[in-house]
Amino acid sequence: MHVPDGFFDVPVSVGAGVFAAAGVAVCLRGAKRELDDRTAPMAGLVAAFIFAAQMLNFPVAAGTSGHLLGGALAAILVGPYTAVLCVAVVLLVQGFFFADGGLTALGVNITLMAIVTAVVGWAVFRLITRGAPRGRATLVAGSFVAALVSVPAAALVFTALFWLGGTAPIELGSVAAAMGGVHLLIGLGEGFITALTVSSVLAVRPDLVYGARGMTRALTLRTAEGDVQVGPAAPEAPSAGMGLRPVLVGGALVAVLLAGVVSFYASSAPDGLEKVAADKGLSAQEKPHTAENGPLAGYSIKGVENQRLSGGLAGVAGVALTVVAGGGVFYVIRRRRRGADAMTPASAR
C-alpha cells in the first residue's frame, strides 16, 4: 500500500504530513514508557523484519499480490507507540533509498501503514485478549484477528483521503469496493504472518512480547508431591530460557535471509493498491519519484547485472539501513528514559 506521488492533491498531502508528524511526535514521547532493556533492541529487530517481510509479495487473487504492512505485528511485539516508530522508520528508508512510496506522499503512507495499522491492530488485540482466558492460544488468535482487521482499516482510511483530495475523477464507491475487497484478502495473509511470528517469539521468549505481559501462564508440572510451576508466572520478568542476544542474532539472520534470498521468489504481480490504481485509471496520476535514479532504487543495486545478486544485495542493504536508523532512534529514546529515571527519586517511581 505504498502510495506514490501524485495520487492526492496538495492540501491532503500536507494535511496528512502534519497529522503524521504530530502522531510520530506523540509516539516518541509514548515510546519512552515502552522501551526497556528488552524492548529497545527488539524494536530495531522488528523494524528490520518488517522491511524484509515487505519485500515478500504473496499472491492473493488473479494478477494481484499483497505484502505485510506490519503495524499490528509491531504493536503486539514492542508496544503501540514504538510500533508506529518502527513502521515509520521502514517507510523513510524505503522512500529515500529505494524509491518505494512517494516523498510528497510520505505523510499519507505513515498515516495509513504506521498509525492506522498500529492503533487499530493494538485496539483489536486488546479487545480480544482482555476478556479472554489467559494463554498462548488467546494471544495468537488475537494477533491474527488484529492484523487481519488492520489492513482493510488502512484501505478504508485511504478511501476517505481519496474522497477528500484524490487527483483522479473516480467514483468513490468504486474505489471503496475495490480497495476493501482486495485488502481484506491481503489481511488474511497479514494475519497469518503476524500470528506465526508472535507464536514463534512466544515459544522462545514470551517476556519479549509486549502484548503478552500479564497474559501468559507458567508451565505446571504434576508430580507426586503436587503441582509445580516452572518458569515465570508473568512475562514481565526475563525468561530463564534462551538469552536475548541469540534471539536478536537469530531474528537478524532471518531478516537477512528473507530480504537477501527469499525475496527473489516473491510474487511479481502488482500489490493491492497498484492493481486498483491500474484498473481504475488512478495510476495515470503517478508522478516520477525523486529518488528513482538512486543506487538502490527499485530494490536493486545499480551496476550489478545479475538480477538475483542485485536484488539480494539491495535487500541486505535495506535491512542494514533499517537496523542502523531504527536502532539509533530507539537508543536515543531509551537513553533519555534512563536519564529521566535517574533524576526521579526512588520514592516517586
Structure in words:
- A two-stranded antiparallel sheet has the order 1-2. Strands 3-4 form a two-stranded antiparallel sheet.
- Strand 3 (219-223) and strand 4 form a beta hairpin.
- It is globular.
- The model is unreliable at 231-236 (pLDDT under 50).
- The protein has 349 residues and is mostly helical.
- The protein has helices at residues 10-34, 39-53, 71-78, 80-97, 106-130, 136-165, 172-204, 244-260, 272-280, 307-343, and strands at 58-61, 64-66, 219-223, 226-230.
- The N and C termini lie far apart (42 Å).
- It has a single domain (10-217, 230-348), classed as Orthogonal Bundle (Arp2/3 complex 21 kDa subunit ARPC3).
Can you give keywords for this protein?
mainly alpha; two-stranded antiparallel sheet; 349 residues; single chain; Cobalt/nickel transport system permease protein; transport; 4 strands; 62% helix; 10 helices; Arp2/3 complex 21 kDa subunit ARPC3
